[in-house]
């Protein structure tokens, strides 16, 4: 049984502001019941979900940490980078980080259109306007397209959309137009934040740790539903070797899929304290 003195965090979750299915307000209710002491909303390419929660959170709630998940990579590579602990002013329109995120959003929407066009060419008639309706103003991602495919009857399940059609290197997969990891890391650092490699066990992202550490990577997400014990051991060894911090979270999306439930990963609160120490020493 967990001792009352033990405190945990969840630094990876998504809302309807990106590709989650839970509204920011409802996610806050889930967080309140989860028992975590601190959390970060890390929507893809947007701060909207986090900003909505920041407006309604109260002093008795778990601590909200600023966060966002950005894509980066060299050609043929798709890495996800989690940005933490930036000043809230960096989420406002006109900041360098926000301008870059607006570019990310435009690239996401263009990519979404190209994926739908590929599906149509393959004989699956998906209307992009339906994808936009499902996204409801949030940056378009493959989960929105998968939902549209399921709704149209093109697939029998959400998972089928990925393993058969739009997953990595599948027939309708379209590679992202990404910024270089070094460029994203520099943007985050200029905003006072820290950069962590998300879910290193996905798409062989683990292989990029050494290179990213030379570009200024601050940490690696070890606690994640996709990481088995063997991977976590390797990641801890890499973190020690390259002097990287450790983080983790559920990667909650609200779907009954391969992501976790809020608070499911028992991520020690002391890891957040070390992150704050690193951020303070760099600013």
Written description of the protein model:
It is built from ten helices and nine strands. α5 packs across α6. Helices cover 41% and strands 13% of the residues. The chain is α/β, with parallel strands linked by helices. It has two domains: 192 residues, TIM Barrel, CATH 3.20.20.140; 65 residues, DNA polymerase, domain 1, CATH 1.10.150.
Descriptive tags:
9 strands; five-stranded mixed beta sheet; TIM Barrel; 41% helix; single chain; 283 residues; 2 domains; 13% strand; DNA polymerase, domain 1; alpha/beta; four-stranded mixed beta sheet
List the helices and strands and how they pair.
Layout: E1 8-10, H1 24-34, E2 38-40, H2 48-56, E3 63-65, E4 67-72, E5 79-84, H3 96-121, H4 128-135, H5 142-152, H6 158-166, H7 181-190, E6 194-197, H8 209-214, E7 219-223, H9 229-241, E8 245-248, E9 267-268, H10 269-282
Parallel strand pairs: 1-2, 2-3, 6-7, 7-8
Antiparallel strand pairs: 1-9, 4-5, 5-6
Helix pairs in contact: 4-5, 5-6
In sequence order, what are the helices and strands, one letter per element?
EHEHEEEHHHHHEHEHEEH
Taken together, the total number of domains comes to: 2
Tell me the structural class: alpha/beta
Largest sheet: 5 strands, mixed
What Rg, in angstroms, do the CA atoms define? Answer: 18 Å
Reading off the top of the CATH hierarchy, the class of the largest domain is best stated as: Alpha Beta
Helical proportion, percent range:
40-55%
CATH superfamily of the largest domain: Metal-dependent hydrolases
Across the major sheet, the strand order is 4-5-6-7-8
CATH architecture of the largest domain: Alpha-Beta Barrel
Terminal Cα separation, in Å? 39 Å
Overall average pLDDT = 92
| Beta fraction | 5-15%
